[in-house]
Amino acid sequence: MRKPFAAGNWKMNTNSRTSVDLAKRLADEASDAAGHSVTVAVCPPFVYLQAVTKALNGSSISVGAQDLYFEPDGAFTGEISVSMLKDIGCTYCLCGHSERRHVIGETDELINKKVTAAIKGGLLPILCVGELLEERKAGKTNEVVTRHIEKGLAGLSLEKVEAVTIAYEPVWAIGTGLTATPQQAQEVHIFIRNLLGKMYDKKAADEMRILYGGSVKPSNTAELMAQPDVDGVLVGGASLKAEDFLGIIQASIR
Ligand code: PEP
Predict the structure, then answer these.
(1) Looking at beta carbons, which pairs linking 106-110 to residues 24 or more positions away fall under 8 Å?
(2) What is the DSSP letter of 206?
(3) Rounded CA gap, 210 and 99, in Å?
């Protein structure tokens, strides 16, 4: 039985006060659910990770980074290593978010290095995959998702891949208010699970969590979570409002 997972990606939002206020409110009101019925994580901007970790201390809400660099240390100006993230209490790390793929220009090869480094250093990667609108219109959704997953997980053993969570995030649904229908999400999620079954084995595929992301709101979470292969949600905009994210956490519980 896969435990539901609600993760919030704060992107380049909040400040030193609002990040801590949001974390404290979540710690106060979501601690009971988090850890028991649902895994909850928030991914603040790097500069607020430590303050947010402190504000969440004692709650069951985990902290994730939005990105990492794959080298352990050295002359990589502006980058943040896995050991730095572990050092300040991070548990998760997003890898290959669509904004990093399409705005910053990250390749599948770079994302694979990040996923590999995260696991090696003890962080749990959330590998984001998903097609652009034109790719969906051209009937290429499965092709794109296959490429993102095969290349993103390249070289990972069965034992290592168990640390990975997949997030299916159709790019046309991110921050646009357009959510994939529960059926559209389920179709891709079962496709991904079957692909993982072929790449690894059925047991590993059945155990891996596959989150949906793309304009998730409190009002559409339950119908997405009702799909058999939707194991959780990765939430951008709505995770910045405490009421909304709390509503999403509640609606994620099965
Ligand atoms: C995201 O950032 O991963 C995301 C899905 O954003 P939004 O919920 O705002 O669409």
Answers:
(1) 108/147, 108/148, 108/151, 108/152, 109/151, 110/70
(2) H
(3) 19
Domain boundaries, the chain: 5-252
Cα 236 to ligand 1 centre (Å): 3
Q: What per-residue confidence (pLDDT) applies to 31?
A: 81
Q: What is the mean pLDDT of the chain?
A: 97
Distance between CA 19 and CA 232 in Å, rounded? 23
CA quadruple 152, 159, 37, 223: dihedral positive or negative?
positive
**Averaged over 142-153, what is the pLDDT?**
98
Q: pLDDT (tens digit, 9 = 90+) per residue, 226-241?
A: 999 999 999 999 999 9
d(CA 150, CA 33): 34
- Residue in 215, 217, 244 to alter for ligand 1 test, most ligand atoms within 8 A of Cβ: 215
**Set 99, 106, 131, 169: catalytic member:** 169
CATH 3.30.565.10 assigned to 5-252: no
